[in-house]
Specification:
Length: 288
């Protein structure tokens, strides 16, 4: 596996691969790799001739009061995991190389970025869309894999790719969960043993609520009751718990016939914010 930090070297390698006709798969990450990331890498490995994984903790998607400084980092461990999956190239750009001191250009995606995580993290999708666009320009992949755990991020990236004519296929991967249902996340390491015991209630509550909403009843009372159940289970704060249309993320008051919904939530256990989502009806195919 090539470990590349310089953009010139990345460009040279990608250019050679493309000239040789290789299909390039890409998985962008912020490191602290867990089984959820590795599942995305395995999918890329199965579909591509060459696989690139980037590791870059992107400062522009964190607000000043958020966890950029303490975000988990484990470069040696991450590289060992990627080597074991036969990744061809790990790209670890330096911060100075990613953003010029007078960086002034941003990618703003409206539509799917509105509400949900933007309610409390208004800076977030501008940072994500900008860094993903920059990484796509640098890596020039034929396809890139994104996890459905960050469902709003997935829809924002899909919309950016469509609207800005980027020649990259966005491939979704279903949420990877622990045996008790907790969605894998790099931030799960922040949870105390007590919080870890409470955490699966988020997924359980989403699944129960998705079952109730599947028959087309009004969503608002069920969402309010589910929010109360999360608080009763031990969550300190619920940022949102909402029913949206799966494809566009427009708000839904209820599930109509042939409408695919997505139930999305963000909730806090102490200083740790967990997000999760499920399809509605529950058996609808994930990315639908
Ligand atoms: O999902 C993530 O890890 C990040 O938001 C991403 C896509 C790597 C952009 O920094």
């Amino acid at each position: 596996m090539q470990v590349v930090r310089a953009l010139t070297e990345l460009r040279r390698t990608v250019e050679e691969w493309r000239r040789a006709g290789a299909r390039i798969g890409f998985v962008p990450t912020m490191g602290a790799l867990h089984e959820g990331h590795l599942a995305l890498v395995r999918l890329a490995r199965a579909r591509a001739d060459r696989v690139v994984v980037s590791i870059y903790v992107n400062p522009t998607q964190f607000a000043p009061h958020e966890d950029f400084a303490r975000y988990p980092r484990d470069e040696a461990g991450d590289l060992a995991k990627l080597r074991a999956l036969a990744v061809d190239l790990a790209y670890l750009p330096a911060h100075e190389d990613m953003y010029a001191p007078d960086h002034a250009s941003w990618v703003m995606v409206e539509g799917p970025s509105e509400g949900l995580c933007s309610l409390t993290r208004p800076h977030f999708f501008r940072g994500v869309a900008t860094v993903v666009a920059k990484l796509f320009h640098r890596v020039r992949p034929h396809f890139a894999v994104f996890g459905e755990k960050d469902f709003q991020q997935l829809r924002v990236v899909e919309r950016m790719v469509r609207d800005l004519d980027m020649d990259v296929e966005v491939v979704p991967h279903p949420v990877v969960r622990e045996a008790d249902g907790l969605a894998l996340s790099s931030r799960n390491v922040y949870l105390s043993p007590d919080q870890r015991r409470v955490a699966p209630a988020l997924y359980r509550t989403l699944v129960e609520t998705a079952r109730l909403l599947a028959d087309g009843r009004p969503a608002a009372p069920e969402l309010a009751a589910a929010t109360d159940r999360l608080r009763a289970a031990g969550f300190d704060r619920v940022d949102y718990l909402e029913l949206r249309e799966s494809a566009t993320l427009r708000p839904l008051e209820r599930i109509g016939p042939a409408v695919r919904g997505r139930l999305l939530a963000a909730a806090w256990l102490g200083g740790t914010r967990l997000i999760d989502n499920v399809p509605v009806p529950p058996d609808a195919p994930g990315a639908g």
